[in-house]
Design a protein that fits this description.
With 150 residues, this protein is an alpha+beta fold. The protein is built from four helices and six strands; from the N terminus they run βαβαβββαβα. The longest helix is centred in the C-terminal third of the chain and has 10 residues. The chain binds a DNA duplex (12 and 12 nucleotides) through loops.
DNA sequence: GCCAACGTTGGC
DNA sequence: GCCAACGTTGGC
């Protein structure tokens, strides 16, 4: 069992949207480091939902990997802004696992709170720049975050 | 392979 | 809306 964190702007897709849909394919990621994390995900792994450009920005809930290693179909769609002419169906460049809603936290774990967690100090989430949209977390990091929501 | 120019992300 | 930090692109 592994732990991850995935970012999204609530304007594009929020945890409330996910709660209605119950599950979604996490597509549209076009960064190789983030893609590598998406590709590693296995069914049953936990993914925290981080809302960026939000009031406040922070972790709003959790998800579970329902189907791992699915191709991101947008890479084959010529009309999509995520179309990738180099991608082939035999060996898709971009991966989009299906994530299902697990839980919405009662309160947002804000970026300020995350910064105050010593266990998170070395996480990519808090590193300067903070632009990676899919981050893997250690068990300790995950548990430190979940502890705040209790 | 270097690096400048450019585009994007994300906090504020 | 601003801007710093980063990733990507393309000329050489």
């Amino acid at each position: 069992m592994k732990y991850y964190l995935a970012k999204c702007e609530p304007e594009a897709y929020s945890i409330d949207d996910l709660k209605v849909d119950m599950s979604t394919q996490w597509d549209g990621v076009r960064n190789y480091q983030a893609r590598n994390n998406l590709r590693e995900m296995e069914k049953g792994d936990i993914v925290l939902f981080y809302q960026s450009n939000a009031e406040p920005s922070g972790i709003v809930g959790s998800m579970e990997v329902a189907e791992a290693k699915l191709p991101d179909t947008l890479q084959f769609d010529k009309r999509s802004e995520y179309y990738d002419p180099k991608a082939t169906k035999e060996s898709p460049t971009w991966i989009a696992p299906r994530l299902k809603f697990k839980q919405k936290f009662k309160e947002v774990v804000s970026l300020d709170e995350l910064r105050s967690l010593k266990k998170l100090a070395s996480s990519a989430l808090l590193r300067k720049g903070n632009r990676l949209s899919v981050i893997s977390l250690t068990k300790e990091e995950y548990e430190a975050i979940v502890e705040v929501t209790k």
